[in-house]
Amino acid sequence: MSLNSTPASDRVHIGIFGRRNAGKSSLINAITNQNIAIVSDVLGTTTDPVYKAMELLPLGPVMIIDTPGLDDDGILGEMRIKKTNQVLNKTDIAIVVIDSEMGKTSLETDLIEKIKAKKIPYITVFNKADSKNPSVSDDEIAVSAKTGKNINELKERIAKLNKAEIYEYPIISDLIESNDTVILVIPVDEAAPKGRIILPQQQTLREILDSGAAAVCVQPSELDAVIKNLKNPPKMVVTDSQAFKEVSEIVPENILLTSFSILLARHKGKLFDQLKGAAALDSLKDGDIVLISEGCTHHRQCNDIGTVKLPRLIKEYTGADIIFEYTSGTEFPDDLSKYKLIVHCGGCMLNEREMKYRIKTAQDQDIPITNYGMVLAKVNGILDRSLEVFDI
Known about the structure:
The chain is α/β, with parallel strands linked by helices.
């Protein structure tokens, strides 16, 4: 991926919701002026959420999500509706589409209440206004995807609703100054993607460059020589969490040390809450269930961090016979009551709204949650050191 590309997690997520055949897909095509979504008179044409990354003026980079109908039926229909509700957890702006000929029903009313409860900016759109012109309030709009009526006005309203949270903290830029040197330790092993570096490393590198600082990228085996060869010591070293132990033994104590995952814990989540979650490792006992959750789906290697390395290290640290369960991608349980701890990845592929939703879901059920980097730092006895970069 190009450093100039906007990753999906940093795009404004616009979710399109409504009944079957309300014209959701047609509306998407009209808004984007492209034939992105399949349009048909057959009920239930959209069977799964469909994601489309694009530029949408005047918003800029967005992720448009077309969802199955809220009135889908049968066993498969229930599964599709569940998927639709999951989309709400990552939606920055919601568009509720109503068939003007049918009018607003309890389905749309209930959905709007859910949207309000999640504090998501939204707009109610009455589609098919070419066949019936509905009476709308100030916070509603009547459009026709077929004729283009009020589509430009709708886009302007969407832009005004763009109150997607600005990250409270950047990844690293507020921790460094112009002309500082930061060493990024990026192992190239069996888990490294061929020919590229992973997203958190790209984003950290870009912030360093944007800050007028210098970045030096090395593998663990070259780290000691690079530190010794620098005229002045680096401001900090940021490492892949899996190399934490090896890197901590190389980096002198007077140089700040942290990991990409811990930087993301502050940038995209809630640092202190995840720090508290890491403390829960000390109370785990035989038979406890720990959930390890990743925000993306990928081919797991034979020595995968989530399913192999972390479980092994946690068992070694606690000395307990712990049961591990796993989720990945969009899957995250609503009921977390059986878990004693949740260990989440850094969430680089999730937008901030979804990452914070997952943290809040755990907190609401009084289940401690932490992330990969915090756990790896704790089991290696360097958690306090890895947080010194934040001056805490």
